[in-house]
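Why does this matter for the project? Reviewers at the last site visit asked to see concrete outputs rather than summary tables. In response, this paragraph embeds two records directly. Each consists of the residue sequence and, immediately after it, the corresponding structure tokens. Nothing has been edited or filtered.
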Amino acid sequence: MIQETPISNSNYFLPHREGRGWVSLLSPSDKALWLQLLSAARHIVITCHRGPDGDAIGSTTALASWLRRHYPEADIRVVAPTIFPDFLKWMPGAEDILIYEKHEDEVRPIIEHSDLVILCDHGELKRMWTLGDVVRDHPTPRIMIDHHLDPEQGIADLVISHPDLSSTCEVLLRVILELEPLLADGCPASSLPLLTHDEAVSLYTGMMTDTGAFTYASTRPEIYELISILLQHGIDKDKIYRNVFFTYSPNRLKLQGYMLYAKLDVWKKAHTSIMTFTNAERRRFGTLNGDTEGLVNLPLQILGMKLSIFLREDTEHPCIRVSLRSVDDFPCNEMAAEFFGGGGHKNAAGGEIWGTMDDAVAIAKKAVQKFLPLLKE
């Protein structure tokens, strides 16, 4: 019989382990600035990008819980620019997230009263829409924790940005691992666990959703060492998967069949597919918030497909939301930046077109034509 022994927090400290590819994410000056900013803060606001996904909700809720344990004297709020999908509402702490859009009069004073803002899962204030303007106009220290390319210059006093990592939740977990020994050294926090069960759930959810359940951007061995740490905190990864992906309504399945049968347009020579989704179709199928999530991935199951484009009318604004997914080395982020005013990752990116669906389709065709040599490789 194998005898298990308790594992102390220090055993989790992986980033300096030699021979495993671990590199410290924080310099000594970064750690000192973190401690300085957090020690001085009494009203902390944690924010994310509009249309929050699993990584945004996971990183903000995990960070809020972790900070409340280590800085109990601080008032800590999580503010999202817009609503998030229904299939993420089960996540620990999600019920406490404040939504800025349509609640501006209630939420703006909280931002303006804060003495520290932490930006999670985005590197540009414009990705927060109007909430970004409020944050930009409020002169308070900021910390950014992110994994997107090319963060906005001057966005934060402390920038922790690592595009080579799978998700903001992975960045945050490694930051926690690096900070824990400093916080535990001679402090009351030394008696605290590295993570609570709920924090581990949030971090795993963010890592899982931002890698398509570990089907892309997840080949580095250290990702699975981090997952092993989260598993040791009692998470049920299979249940988390079901909570995110096995929550479809009958209308969602009908919508999926309709989109694949009636709306899927395959451009064979370009190894590209495109689907469009209008608000009239949304009403026809009784589509709930988040029901279109994942549809953009389905055409990539077609043999030889390299790029999937999904265009949908926004429910609140006169624009078309653009989602791009690709396989192998096709750079979705470059296409999104050049043609759709957006960005993201190599295999998953997005943006928007302020105009009609016909405008968006026309621009998508131009984008595919421009990138045709790469799509034909």
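We now turn to the second protein, recorded in exactly the same manner.
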Amino acid sequence: MDERDVYRAKEAMQSVMKKGNMRPVLIIGAILVVFLFLHPWAQIGAGERGVVLNFGAVQENVLGEGLHFRIPIMQKVVPMDVKVQKSLTNAAAASSDLQDVSSEVALNYHIVPDKSSIVYQSIGIHFKERIIDPAVQEVVKAVTAKYSAEELITKRPAVSEAMRATLTERLMVHNMAVDAFSIVGFSFSKIFMEAIESKQTAEQLALKAKRDLERIKIEAEQKVTAAKAEAESLRLQRANISTDLIELRKIEANLKAIDKWNGILPQVTGGGAVPFIGVGEIEKR
């Protein structure tokens, strides 16, 4: 064996050794590739629940938030959103007095978390189109038909509460809970709105006329009361007048006239008499 043969054998042995060292790395790499490809875990986010499927069959257990392992190929995990969701629905209905009513209602709801697997199995993930919207439409029509168009306006809180209670009962059958319900708005036909406006105007005018009548009545009563009081005062004054009082008033009047006289007699008098009234009467007393 010459030196070249020895060198070739040495290279062959080194090659075999190198291949032997790479084999575990290749095996580990292959395992990692398979692991990542099969994805043997499921991550459930906040406000979600995981529905476990074994070869497509829904299992009773529901996965909570976090990381969960699954059996590749055999198991599949479907996330279900259990957070509060909002639905805005327009519904057309008729009142008890056969007026057309268009309603816009807002509904906040969520899937009962522990019943997520049942909801997925019986309804699927498109529950809004299949359950929520039809339920809202039917409830709005049923409750609206119990009230007149005017009552829908004047009794709006009662109407909203009736719709909420009915809808809560209806959706709970499908494992969905109602968090809030509100009537965004009612709209009626133009003719009906004009009639309502005319009625309100007439009521306001009637109320104003009633108030004016009450005011006039009160003012008249006040005048009558004042007149009665004045008449009573005059009656009392007349009752208190006597001959002595009349004489006393005359004397007081004459004294006031004397106080005001400047001592000069008038130059012209009728019949030559001096018009000094009351002096004789004072002297007589």
